[in-house]
Amino acid sequence: MSHHNPSDAFRGGQMELFGGEPPPVSRSTPEEMRAYLHALLAEARAASTMPWPRERARFYRLLVPQLSFWLPEEEGARLRAAFAAELARLASAGTQQDGRVTPRK
């Protein structure tokens, strides 16, 4: 009687059924996330009006909290708060139309 090992079904040439090899695992580090977040915050702080189109600003509003979780809790919270404050400051400086910022009158 032959014994069938279920894991044999996944050996050999089965990966082509799923589009090839799986994508590489992210090797990002907290240091890279910290540098990215600080650069983004510096860009916001240096701007007198919203430096990004509406869609990009919305993306950053969602991205920054996610990336901050790579950092120690207190540091991440400080960066989230600082970025939110900059977005609020920039939003009060003007309104966006067609991806551009126009000063409020």
What does this structure look like?
It is a single chain. The protein has 105 residues and is mainly α. It has a domain at 28-93. The protein contains three helices and two strands; from the N terminus they run H-H-H-E-E. The chain has a two-stranded antiparallel sheet with strand order 1-2. The radius of gyration is 22 Å and the shape is elongated. It starts with 29 loop residues before the first helix and ends with a strand. The model has no long low-confidence stretch (mean pLDDT 83).
Fold topology:
Layout: H1 30-46, H2 54-68, H3 73-93, E1 94-97, E2 100-103
Antiparallel strand pairs: 1-2
What's the Cα radius of gyration?
22 Å
Report the major sheet: 2 strands, antiparallel
Distance between the termini: 86 Å
Helix content: 40-55%
Strand/helix succession: HHHEE
Strand order in the sheet with the most strands: 1-2
Helix segment tally: 3
Quickly give the structural class.
Answer: mainly alpha
* Unreliable segments of 5+ consecutive residues: none
The chain-level mean pLDDT equals 83
User: What is the number of beta strands?
Assistant: 2
Report the portion of residues in β strands.
Answer: 5-15%
Shape: elongated
